[in-house]
Amino acid sequence: MQRRYRTITDLKINESARAISFDDSELACKLTSMGLLPGTRIEMIRKSPFGSAYYVKADGVRLALREEEAASILLEV
Amino acid sequence: MTDMSPTLKIALIGNPNSGKSTVFNQMTGLRQRTGNFPGVTVEVKEGLLKFPSGHEATLYDFPGTYSLYPTSSDEKVVASVLTNPADPYFPDALVYVADVTKLEKHLLLFTQLLDLNIPLLFALNMSDSATDLGIKVNASKLSESFGVPVVSISGRTGHNTMRLILDLEKMVNRPPVSGNRTPFYPLTESEKQVSEAIRQNLGIENPYRALLLAHHGPWLHFLKPTEKETVLAIVSTKNFQSLRAQVDETLERYDRFIPISQAAVVSPPAFPNTPTDRIDAVLTHRLGGPLIFFGVMMLIFQAIFDWSVYPMDWIENGFALVSEFLTVQMPEAWYTELLTDGILAGLGGILVFVPQIAILFLLITILEEVGYMARVVFMFDKTMRRFGMNGRSMVSLISGSACAVPAIMSSRTIGNWQERLITVMVTPFISCSARIPVYLVLIGLAVPAIKLGGVLNLQSLVFGAMYVLGVLAAFASGWAMKRWLHRREHSFLAIELPVYRIPHWRNVVLNVWEKVKAFIVGAGKIILIVSIALWGLSRFGPGNAMDQADQTAQTEAQQLSLDTVETEGLVQQRRLEASWAGQAGKFMEPAIRPLGYDWKIGIALLTSFAAREVFTGTLAVLYNMGGSEADINDRSENAAKATLRERMKSEKFGDTGKPVYTLATALSLLVFYALSMQCFSTLAVVRRETGSWKWAALQFTFMSVAAYLGAWAVYVLFS
After folding, report:
1. How many CB atoms lie within 10 A of CB A76?
2. ipTM of the complex
3. Structural domains in chain A plus CATH codes
4. pLDDT value at B58 more than 70
5. How far apart are CA B360 and CA B234, in angstroms?
6. Can you tell me the distance from the alpha carbon of B233 to that of B224, in angstroms, rounded to the nearest whole number?
7. Which residues does residue A54 pair with via DSSP β-bridges, in sequence order?
8. Is any Cβ of chain B less than 8 angstroms from the Cβ of A39?
9. Distance (Å, rounded) from C-alpha B384 to C-alpha B220?
10. Is A22 on the interface with B (CB under 8 A)?
11. HSE of B591 in the Cβ direction (CA atoms, 13 Å)?
């Protein structure tokens, strides 16, 4: 089955896309309060040395996100 | 200070990385202290704010938070205080500090505070960076839109600090506006119903505060049980979906304030490649990042040892001089001994660690202020999570190599309770500065100073191995605790990686002072009390045992025709053997015999319970060194150490006649000291941070068991 959406974890290095929504309300609460909103342009900068964490830029703000956190942010296709 | 504090209370609030603490330091200078919010272990900095008019106010620096919907105990405090006007910290006015270069991200909490209707002043911080970046902000436009005074400041340069203080006084002197202002965020229909019901039942005036009670009812401590029940009943009958509503409210607020900030701020197009990006390309590189981190750690430890040698010598020699002077000047009596061997020795044992602790925290603070620690958290989050912790635990573990007391206190930023608990429980395994003198003496006595392959010094190698052992023990117990606790709770990494900045010296100095104070006050008090108690135990004995010991020693000395110094040493030895501590040592010999220790080592284990380095001094007395402790504690190879080694080597077990002090015993002792929990101060801090003796007792038990088993295994392996 083809997925209808993708998340931050699907972004390649230096690729960017707009966030559309969240699929976990607790994480959504935390991330929106940090300024990561639906509509925010998210750019993948790099992965952490031991994997499972991502260094991203959300509208120019540098954030470190865990795998689950990154996977809860749905992006435009 | 609390009773003397001015009654006017003002709180600084802002997001993490808003530069709030720098502004706080600018406004209060050195007139500040750190306290605790009652009931929770969250720090609040408190300072005296002097207005030019001569009036004064107490200024509080609240923990940084992104919104009034908290995820860590630090953030919860802010929501809890601001929703409870009866709270002793409830401020009469707020100063909201925002990073003007990221104004949009900092407006969420600001507009939430607006709706609480507490007098609010808006401080646009980092105006110097904004100018450098070509960002122009129209402060009067912002002031007009939000209806609050706005001041552009720079915490780093101090620009406009006075203006901020003047405007603040003007604001607090203004008569309060009667009636509620139009809220920035209009409640939705369902929020209105919940808020209205809570307002009526609990007699609350402000609708947004009532709404916050609906969101936070389950954990707010100040609500009476009946009030809590009422709130929970309202939430459930109205079928109020808290999380959903929080997200919707947040998004609605953004929709409302983004046009305002866009109208007031003119920023040039962002440059894609800033210095921070270029630095991070190296420092967080997949391979290079961790390598650089370990390099930095090595340099830090090198610095600790190199820089602390001289101040430590001064402190040791200073105390030795004072102690000698008092012994000569004061009458020969028990109270002189109490002063020199109990109190002064205890104080010296505390202060001698200050240089190492100060240097380590100086370097850690600089790394934190620069912004590097956030990158460490990012790089090692995965690794730490495998062991039940969190990327943020790295800061605690690194600090643990100075002193576990401030290190455990720094775990407060970890939001997830289980991860924080595990961090607290395993941090004392990291070899702290108090273990260093014990390691050095034991290694100096037992490990030959040979070079392996002509390069690697065997002694340094064993010393390094002790650190590795501590780290391994910490991670292994973290792993075990994770499996055992196995609690499912939301855990967050989501951390902002701030722009790299040159640290502000005032922040660095104040932070180092705070950590050193935490060690001196938190650990020192207990070390002092225990060392006085242990002095009593080794100075007094049951019945007339001590007098008998005196006589035996004198007779022996005459038979052997010893000189005065040697006689004095022998008297001390026999007295310690006869004392309560000596009795206890003999009593516990069967228990420690499997580890290769005789009762003399048992005494040393007991006396080193307050401060580990006492171990060497006790052994010196037991093996009749005659000379002062300082000779043996001297870090260089010297005659005293050689003598002690000779004495220890000739020591035999009473029953079997086998030598006590072999390489196996020395290694076994090293492992014991690396793993055991011999620090009452740490236990006290663990109790405070976890809220119960349960965890402290568990920690003491498992560390002792680990130390015993580890020491036993090593003894069996090497003998």
Report:
1. 12
2. 0.94
3. 6-75 (2.30.30.90)
4. yes
5. 52
6. 14
7. A47, A65
8. no
9. 31
10. yes
11. 12
Residue B610's pLDDT is 65
Tokens matching residue B31: 């007139």
Closest CA to B293 of B195, B383, B410: B383
In whole angstroms, how far apart are CA B342 and each of B28, B36, B324?
39, 31, 14
Residue B488, CA atoms < 13 Å, CB-side half-sphere: 0
Q: How many CA atoms lie within 13 A of B21 on its CB side?
A: 20
DSSP code, position B489: -
Amino acid residing at B617: G
Grouping H, G, I as helix, E, B as strand and the rest as coil, residue B12 is strand
Question: What is the band of B613 on the pLDDT scale with cuts at 50, 70, 90?
Answer: low
Mutating which of B18, B280, B382 best tests the A interface, going by the most A Cβ atoms within 10 A?
B382
Query: What is the percent of chain B where pLDDT is above 90?
Result: 44
Lookup: tokens for B49 = 């704010």
- Is the model's pLDDT at B181 over the cut of 80? no
Contact B49, B167 (CB under 8 A): no
* CA-wise closest residue to B671 among B449, B474, B467, B479: B467
Spell out which chain B residues touch chain A, with contact meaning CB-CB distance below 8 angstroms.
Answer: 66-67, 69, 71, 102, 104-105, 108-109, 243-244, 246-247, 250-251, 254, 270, 276-277, 280, 284-287, 289-290, 374, 377-383, 385, 391, 490, 492-499
pLDDT in tens, B663-694: 888 899 999 999 998 887 888 889 888 888 99
Task: Give B83: exposed, middle or buried? Use CB within 10 Å, 0-12, 13-18, 19+.
Answer: buried
User: How many other C-beta atoms lie within 10 A of the C-beta of residue B595?
Assistant: 25
Cβ contact A66–B492 (<8 Å): yes
pLDDT at position B698, please? 94
Structure letter (DSSP) for residue B340? I
In angstroms, the CA B34 to CA B521 distance is 12
Q: Distance from A2 to chain B by nearest Cα, in Å? A: 29
Do B247 and A34 lie within an 8 Å CB cutoff?
A: no
